[in-house]
UniProtKB/TrEMBL annotation:
This is Histidinol dehydrogenase. Catalyzes the sequential NAD-dependent oxidations of L-histidinol to L-histidinaldehyde and then to L-histidine. The active site is at E318 (proton acceptor), H319 (proton acceptor). Belongs to the histidinol dehydrogenase family. The keyword Amino-acid biosynthesis applies.
Amino acid sequence: MATVVKGATGTSAQRSSDPAVVDTVADVIADIRTNGDDAVRRYSEKFDRWAPASFRLSDDEVLGIVASVPETVLDDLRFAQNQIRTFAEAQRESMRDVEIETLPGVFLGHRNVPIEAAGAYVPGGRYPLTASAHMTVLTAKVAGVDRVAATTPPSDGGAPPISVAAMHLAGADEIYVLGGVQAVAALALGTETVDPVSILTGPGNAYVAEAKRQLFGEVGIDLFAGPTETLIVADEHADPFTIAVDLLSQAEHGPDSPCVLISTSDRVARDVLNHIEALLPGLQTNAVAGPAWRDHGEVHLVDTIEEAYALADRFASEHVQILTADPRQALGHMRNYGALFLGEGTCVPYGDKVIGTNHVLPTLGAARYTGGLWVGKFLKTLTYQEVRDTASSARIGEICGRLSRLERFEGHARSGDLRAARFGGVPLHWADLPAGSGAS
């Protein structure tokens, strides 16, 4: 039985958008759909005070910007991207094309075919999330996407060097300095100077998230994004100070970011609360992390580790950290999470920035039915079928005809009848088989 030691006092994140945001985004998309580049330029100038001759950086401009970034920063970006590439390549290798023979001469198969073009949004503003370039651009390229167009908002009146470097090193084929709804709409719809993409990926503010929601269907998207979520499962062996630090590491994502602790130890739970109160005043991001913990922080006390896993599954949190004596036990007990972080040696910021797994993960309970972004998101699993054996075609045709008529699909039935007649000599009752149309 669970006891609530600290409950959330704020309202939970809404699964529907603010009506004002919905209307604003719809107007921008409609304008860009009609007026293309002119509308994109107007909105960029209005919202970002940014209207260069070209939003797309030339190859020389990209190389010049990358050259301005300190080599130690480039080395760190390369390290992170190598981690992510290695894991993504292993994921891609696990996806095999399939072909089987189900009946004599009946072959069924599927192929994993990359999407032709992907768009990657790399946020700027309060938090320039350069890691998003690794997760979106690089993963798409490993999947085999021919064209990846990456975009990021301007910063300090120009292109943000570290974000541009991250996009370039990740393999972006096109780099745009353009933010907001106008960037997402330009990539999805296409303009006179921007070719459209087939999928949009990457996080953004409420307006970017709403734009992706409204454009979904015309293009694919990675996920519907909500506030960053973290949950820690801890037993009596866990270090309370580590738990406090790790909860606050995710609270700083936003004032509406849920931070949850589920523990089997009353002592650990109480010590965590004390450490958080001591750490928050000195945290540079206290203005964000403080409200997140105050309004959306929760601590639950349970009797057994099995109860802890069951309660954690009900939360279906984006990030779940396991700080127990046997952290790998969670692999057999849990199924609803975006990503698991097992043991004190790892933490959620590793996944956010550098360790190699993708940080674009489900929120708002979506972990109940989906995982996060990975190479498979950029692949279409396409089936095919071939019947080489005429006797098998005749057999399937007869059955297809009968099943189709059960559903009152006479046209479907006749396609099956035709093959049963042509390859198996079964009489056609609705037409005469033309001369020369028999089995060959």
